[in-house]
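Thread amino acids onto this structure.
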């Protein structure tokens, strides 16, 4: 039984969270010996930030599954300022594409900049939530997945993780 591989990759804008390069550059090109690896979750082409990449098929449902409660934090830059009422609406959990979203945490950093922490990961969820309240995401960066943080990583960089670093997700 070969040991599993775990990477924390800072996905740059312009790369796709896919294994196959049919519509653009796969983030797997940024890793050595990427055969058998796949990203856990997604960041759309316009987004950047950290993403877990592994060959451990048992890990994804623990991080992104419907029963997962792992917090993911994003830095969001908006086209227009938002106010406290809008923040409260978003935090309660809006209905997006007919689905009630779980409550989230929004920390306003500036009128057009905030940190958003979510506990689920629906397709284009953060962009969709802000569009729902009449605003648009200009820049989206995933800063944290549970206890794993972007830290001083730069786009395209990665860290090799030990099994111990991700063992918290195996509960």
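Threaded sequence (171 positions):
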């Amino acid at each position: 039984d070969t040991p599993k591989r775990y990477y924390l990759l800072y996905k740059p804008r312009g790369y796709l969270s896919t294994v196959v390069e049919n519509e653009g550059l796969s983030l797997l090109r940024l890793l050595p010996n990427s055969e058998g690896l796949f990203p856990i979750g997604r960041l759309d082409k316009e987004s950047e930030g950290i993403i877990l990449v592994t060959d451990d098929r048992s890990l994804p449902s623990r991080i992104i599954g419907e029963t997962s409660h792992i917090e993911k934090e994003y830095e969001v830059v908006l086209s227009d300022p938002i106010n406290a009422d809008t923040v409260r609406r978003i935090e309660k959990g809006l209905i997006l594409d007919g689905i009630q979203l779980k409550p989230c945490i929004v920390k306003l950093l500036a009128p057009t900049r905030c940190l958003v922490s979510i506990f689920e990961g629906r397709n284009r969820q953060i962009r969709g939530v802000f569009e729902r309240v009449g605003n648009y995401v200009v820049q989206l960066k995933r800063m944290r997945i549970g206890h794993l943080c972007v830290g001083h990583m730069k786009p395209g960089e990665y860290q090799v993780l030990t099994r111990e670093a991700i063992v918290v997700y195996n509960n």
